[in-house]
Predict the 3D structure of the following.
Amino acid sequence: MSDGNLVKEVKVIVFQLKDEEYGVEVDQVRSIERMQHITRVPRTLDFVKGVINLRGVVTPIIELRKRFGIEEIETTDSTRIIIVAAGNLEVGLIVDAANDVVDIPNNVVEPPPEVVGGVEVDYLRGVAKMDKRLLILLNLDKVLNSTELKETKFFKANG
């Protein structure tokens, strides 16, 4: 039996951080929201921007630039909050822009290099080479379920 012609694909939401394009699997994305008022939460991690009330659900918001050690910028009209879920955690990720949805064949995904734009390799699932684009695929389980996140009181209460 040959499955040589079967190339599985993964559908991802493409978003921008600084000069790089990142992707997160569509089945982990709940919604994409415009930037809105974020209520700060005292004594939380520095990359946790605060919480929003999203249709009656209090959702923690992570500043993804700060999480990855990329310099912060002011929000613009294209800034978005991508609401994602990993395990039993649902959080919002602040990104520079959410661009589009693409299908990525698994055979174009390579393991992540040691350094990608300063982002720790643990947070990455791989790099997809598509024509002239390089798409960095995030490992949301690692981004959202690190020990430091679990140790915060807010995530303990909601996680």
